[in-house]
Write a structure and sequence with these properties.
Blueprint lengths: L25 E3 L2 E3 L4 E3 L1 H16 L4 H15 L5 H25 L5 E13 L9 E12 L4 H12 L4 H13 L6 H26 L3
Helix pairs in contact: 1-3, 2-3, 4-6, 5-6
Length: 213
């Protein structure tokens, strides 16, 4: 396979557990392997705690919290980390509950919503010979925080489709093209951007009217 050893390679006995001072654990792919058990790498655990606190502070629904919890469980279930997973999960729900209670007290409850756009039906090729071709829905999706408004949804969709500096760059290129510094294709690029933005705004406004937001 023509693999090369790292310059800092070393040979050491594998420790029985984390309390064994004779050897060391094998740090590999986010885990530390011992003879008697497996633990998560310390940096991974710290990231989990930080993310748990961040998730807990947002006004997420239990369904969204469970999606994050599935990722944490995926890491913890391959190590002796059931207790760690339970601590993280309980901490998230504890913080989230306190945030919701505080929000309800001031009468300004915020929630997260999904807005899906560019929705189209596609055909999914058969996975096995003789199987029928199935159909599925393909779409783009953004998370919008309440209260939901047409302008707020438009802003999130625009941020998902273009970077924050994209419009300013295209505008600068457009002005340079008007002065003859750049080619006319930059004028066309900016016009295409304005046309696409107008179409998005009109689609979102129509959705708000259709579904009575």
């Amino acid at each position: 396979m023509k693999l090369n050893l790292k310059c800092n390679w070393r040979i050491f006995p594998v420790a029985k557990n984390v309390h064994d001072n004779v050897g060391c654990g094998i740090d590999f792919m986010g885990y530390v392997f011992y003879l008697e058990h497996t633990r998560l790498r310390k940096a991974i655990k710290k990231n989990f705690i930080k993310q748990a606190i961040k998730v807990g502070r947002h006004h997420l629904t239990p369904e969204l919290i469970r999606t994050y919890d599935s990722a944490w469980n995926g890491w913890c279930k391959h190590a002796n980390a059931i207790n760690l997973h339970n601590i993280i999960k309980n901490k998230v729900y504890e913080i989230n509950t306190k945030q919701r209670q505080a929000t309800n007290m001031v009468g300004c409850r915020k929630r997260s919503y999904f807005y899906r756009f560019n929705i189209k039906e596609i055909e999914v090729p058969a996975q096995t010979e003789g199987a029928e071709v199935t159909k599925a829905w393909q779409y783009n999706e953004v998370i919008v925080w309440g209260p939901v408004t047409s302008d707020g949804v438009t802003k999130e969709v625009m941020n998902a489709m273009w970077s924050k500096d994209a419009e300013q760059k295209m505008l600068n290129d457009y002005n340079a093209a008007q002065l003859g510094i750049l080619g006319e294709e930059y004028i066309a690029n900016y016009k295409d951007f304005l046309t696409a933005r107008k179409a998005i705004k009109e689609q979102i406004d129509n959705d708000f009217l259709t579904f009575n937001f």
